[in-house]
Amino acid sequence: MSNVLEVxxxxxxxxxxxxxxxxxxxxxxxxxTALIGPNGAGKSTMVGSIAGAVSIxxxxxxxxxxxxxxxxxxxxxxxxxxxxxxxxxxFGGMSVLENLLVVRLGQSGESLxxxxxxxxxxxxxTNELVAEANDILNTFGLYRLRNEYASNLSGGQKRLxxxxxxxxxxxxxxxxxxxxxxVTPALIEILGEHLLELNRSTGMSMLLVEHNLExxxxxxxxxxxxxxxxxxxxxxxxxLRQNRDVVEAYLGGEVHERVGG
Amino acid sequence: MSVILGYVATILVTFxxxxxxxxxxxxxxxxxxxxxxxxxxFMAMGAYFYAVFVMPPANASNQVFYILxxxxxxxxxxxxxxxxxxxxxxxxxxxxxxxxxxxxxxxxTLATGTLLYGLSGDNNKLFDGWAGLFAVNQPFQSVANxxxxxxxxxxxxxSGLVMLAVWWFANQLYSSPLGxxxxxxxxxxxxxxxFGKNTFKxxxxxxxxxSTIVGIGGVLTIQYIGALSPAGWxxxxxxxxxxxxxxxGRGNNIGAMLGSLLVAVVFNEGTRYIPQVASxxxxxxxxxxxxxxxxVILSIWFRPQGVLPEKKAKFFELPLKDKYAQTxxxxxxxQDLVVEV
Lengths: 261, 341
Hints:
The structure holds two protein chains of two kinds. Chain A is α/β, with parallel strands linked by helices. Chain A folds into two domains: 3-90 and 170-260, Rossmann fold; 94-152, no CATH class. Helix content of chain A is 42%, strand content 24%. Chain A has ten helices and ten strands. In chain A, helix 5 crosses helix 6 (155-168). Chain A is globular and about 60 Å long. Chain A starts with a strand and ends with a helix. Chain B is mostly helical. Chain B has one domain: ABC transporter involved in vitamin B12 uptake, BtuC (Orthogonal Bundle), CATH 1.10.3470. Helices cover 69% and strands 1% of the residues of chain B. Chain B contains 15 helices and two strands. In chain B, strand 1 and strand 2 (331-332) form a beta hairpin. At the A-B interface, helix 2, helix 3, helix 4, helix 5 and helix 6 of A face helix 7, helix 8, helix 9, helix 10 and helix 15 of B.
């Protein structure tokens, strides 16, 4: 199996603070890989630098065989690399359905001439996208809210919207920055199953930043552990639970007995 | 009677041109969230360039100076004026849109506008300085000279038709995927960027389209009046257009129209009838600004989205197919769950 994502000796510094200090790992094509680590380990910065929001000072990031380290954010997304945010960032003044419609690339009505003078073609396209978007919204339990302004959704619903919008973009790989944050336990389980099903049915690769180890255990085949800007360890969650460094760095001494024991 | 007819025509032309300005600003701010604080500069750009393309070469013996003086026919000169304001929009966009957003962008537009205002006023070789251009060739010149009322009504029809065309264009754009991208950028530019859209390009499009439309209004203004000096496009004029859009409802083209009617016609024209105070000639214009300012404050206080807020998009939808409604990978994804979220 080939790697869809290769992070190679990446450094990111904010002034004097080394947020990422020589981190390397890979994500195999078609897998869900977890990225875990204590707060401040550099996970979100890593997601940001893969997606292009944070520029790296050295190292390289390869996506689907291409070095994307110096590509602007939007070109990385065009390659099929789509991210979600740790804090939901919905398009508040637009309806839930429109939030999904806007993200699909390659719509003919995105060119000015087509938008103004060939609305028929663009409308037919949009109608198809509406049907597709409604299916996705239904999957994530948002169908009934499709005509609601996104800003009116609850915190948990916004997490669902964040995910459904990313799915609508049809990515090759999803970067999920704590998608379960602020979601009720019952919903976490369902979201996890959705992600797993999505991965199985479409082969979409995912890198999942997550603190909930139950979810990681259930859906991730591989886990990368980061601490203080470096990769600490890599393996299955089972293997990592036996790893003293990981347990100490991530879970602290107290929890050691319960988890590591 | 003919005085009233002429006045009504002028009011209508004022309304139509202000509506064109407001629609242009709505595309920039209401759609794409670009804070253009120098709307009126684009109006002046369109007007001046129409003038210098349509007028004969400047006659130095009259102490009137301006560039070009190509004496083109008015339809071609109109196009030149519109293109010039669009080009200015592009240039300001290059400086302002690449790295800046929101308030910083607003500062750049305001500064550029002030710069151009000073430049065209202090440099009398460009557009005749503070005196401004006058006796600008109008369309149907002979009608304008001999029969001003007929000219006014011809112009009501022309500006009305142009306004309708702009209106149609703005609505087509709004409901298109391009318009949707613009509105998404208004909501959160970074996210749109992260979904693979070239947000600089989309914002630049909004900037240039808006500037071009405001330029169209500028060309119509000078064609109707036949003159323009810097006193006619002070920074304050920009905020009349802003007031119209904010009061009417940003993002809503009918709101923009209502706003131009309320602010540009009812308040701007209505306050003309307050009797002049001889000892204080500035009182009435100041009063007008106070009224418009208060109107903006009140409308933002009580109706922050404007009198007519942006409408929610509606789509043609087919009912969901049953198989989707039931299962997804074995798990029930029914909508009752949402209630618990």
